[in-house]
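Bit of a strange request maybe. I'm writing a small parser for structure token strings and I need a real example to test against, not something I typed by hand. Could someone generate the tokens for this chain?
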Amino acid sequence: MKNQLRVLRAQHGWSQADLADRLEVSRQSVNAIETGKYDPSLPLAFKLAKLFETAIEEIFQDEV
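Reply from user aminoacidic:
Good idea to test on real output. This should exercise your parser:
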């Protein structure tokens, strides 16, 4: 699944560790999501959308 997480994080000036702290996950989890190695759970996707004040669909796109 493609995502805009790295772009959104950079726009806020946050490191992966900063974002991980805000989401209460590990930095490795943030890295795995950004690189497409891991798709977040639905609750985590909602948390990301709320944090970035955007729709989930604006962060994650299906690679069809």
